[in-house]
Prior knowledge:
The complex is a heterotrimer, with 2 copies of chain A (186 residues) and 1 copy of chain C (257 residues). Chain A has 2 domains: 12-88, Winged helix-like DNA-binding domain superfamily/Winged helix DNA-binding domain (Arc Repressor Mutant, subunit A, Orthogonal Bundle), CATH 1.10.10; 99-184, Winged helix-like DNA-binding domain superfamily/Winged helix DNA-binding domain (Arc Repressor Mutant, subunit A). Helix content of chain A is 51%, strand content 13%. Chain A has 9 helices and 5 strands, in the order αααββααβααββαα. Chain A has a 3-stranded antiparallel sheet. In chain A, strands 1-2 form a two-stranded antiparallel sheet. The radius of gyration of chain A is 25 Å and the shape is elongated. Chain C has 257 residues and is mainly alpha-helical. Chain C folds into 2 domains: 11-142, no CATH class; 156-256, Arc Repressor Mutant, subunit A. Chain C has helices at residues 38-48, 58-74, 81-98, 101-108, 114-142, 152-155, 164-184, 193-206, 212-217, 222-238, and strands at 19-24, 27-32, 209-211, 241-245, 252-256. In chain C, α1 (38-48) crosses α5 and α8 packs across α10. Classes of the chains: A alpha+beta (186), C mainly alpha (257). The A-B interface holds A 13, 16-22, 24-26, 38-39, 56, 60-64, 75, 77-78, 81, 84-85, 87-89, 91-92, 94, 166 and B 1, 13, 16-22, 24-27, 38-39, 56, 60-64, 75, 77-78, 81, 84-85, 87-89.
Amino acid sequence: MTEIEEKQPRSIEELITILEALIFVTDEPISAKDLANVLEEDSEFVQSAIEELAQEYQERKSGLMLREIAGGWQIATKTELHDEVRKFLKTRPSAKLSLAALETLAVIAYKQPVTVPEILEIRGVQSASAIKTLLDKKLIVNKGRKETVGKPMQYGTSKDFLIQFGLKDLTELPSIEDFEDLTSGL
Amino acid sequence: MTEIEEKQPRSIEELITILEALIFVTDEPISAKDLANVLEEDSEFVQSAIEELAQEYQERKSGLMLREIAGGWQIATKTELHDEVRKFLKTRPSAKLSLAALETLAVIAYKQPVTVPEILEIRGVQSASAIKTLLDKKLIVNKGRKETVGKPMQYGTSKDFLIQFGLKDLTELPSIEDFEDLTSGL
Amino acid sequence: MESQPEQLVFDFFKEQPQIIAERNDEELKLKIGEFAGPLDLLLYLIRQEQANIFEIPIAKITDEYLRVIRLMEKLDISVAGDFLVMAATLIEIKSKMLLPREIVEENDEDADDPLKELVNRLVEYEKFKNAAQMLWEKSTVEQSIFPRGKIETDENNSEINVGVFDLLNVFQKILSRRKEEIQMEIEREEMSLSEMLSNIKLRLKQSKTFNVTEFFNHTRSKKELVLAFMAILEIVRTEAVKLLQENIFGEIILTKG
Lengths: 186, 186, 257
């Protein structure tokens, strides 16, 4: 494990290769300085290698770019491909809400503000993990506590919910009556 | 949402660019077929574009590679950079499987679907705890019960198995007969 | 297309099982390098004798095997039954080999020669032992390859493949489900979980697929619905079945895996 053999100085090509791998595996954008520390290389040498790498990404017709963000470097998809990427992400499994989450969201959307016991009453099953999912996805928000026994938390839909579902406001939610016409057309 | 404007056919260069972005954003290996579906492109066209992209990765002195694994494509760091990457991520090689677990896994990989009594027959020893370990690590999965006396549970390898052992699919496993007598000379 | 095997810069070290008895603070410890089983131990002993698998010096190997087993017992290492079974087999073979050849042949007509059977098992076992070694090497290579770090969309894929009318659709289904429940709760005989389980299993047997959504809709009470749900969970856990849902609001289908 311990390296006894004398360390050959890295060429800029070698450095670029290693930098690309390291920037690729990090979870967070990483600064040239941090990279220089890890690799025990001169900070300016690392900086110029990164810039050369960024240049390379730009020159070849790549779907990716090396960009500086939040004080660090990161590999990301090119801005002009965002439409395709978004469309693609929609098809990923994680893009799908579970039936439980969906049902819970439907109840909250139509009955808001609504408490957990009320959701249980309507759905007939516990919705705790569904609610957590919806909170994580920022589709619902806390709407304060209800002034009743136990003061249960109330939930309602968020602004993100409106954006996600393409609604101007909640009045745009279709009503049950609208539904009959729409499904017959499908 | 719906695209009304007429769709220009994509050039292979454009396709490669998009594919690189999509393979980058997926969190698990994705097949050419799935990519073709999402992009509404011909499957073979997509396949050849991916192969060209993989070639490009190999030719430029990149820290990354595009490789086929577990029936899909993935961008990953090059093997030879493992020292630097590991040092950077401060990771160690993950805990090795015990000899018993590895043997059991080998039997399951080659004989799947296979039951516990069949594994016992080959290994000459009970494999219950090894099987539990392998199930916990999601390297094997239940493959239903065998229609025989006692209806024993059958096991087979999982997708995670392919990923952890770097296999495109099960046909990549060398033939079991190749392992005969390798060490009889020792 | 064929990805070139990368040049590897690390060593594969092979872990050899070994028996080391060591005295340590008056406490005798035995380190048994992990033997994966009796066949593994047997192969090891044959190697130690530098013997060929097809010409096992059975008397010597049997004695060695028994010595190891006794050592393990003496040192309070619980000897698994499988090791003892092998010991018995070896003793049987050894005693047979000591008999004059004619008698053995008269009795058995080489029908089931236990030594031959053992050799076959060893040959077969050794293949898998070598395959295990191959897997170990592959996983070692794989551990030198790293996937990309997390990006924002991994855990927070904000794109949701759902429209507003889907939402209404689901809501309406919940409401009608509630209405049915109230109607059904008037008179009922309660089912038990095991009745529910065998009910579903029977249906699965009759046809390869099983419409879970429909089944849920036909439950007659909230309790029955809960039981049905639990039964489905149990079946998914214990049987080779898959739950499929073609699209988000679609019906859930249980199929034999």
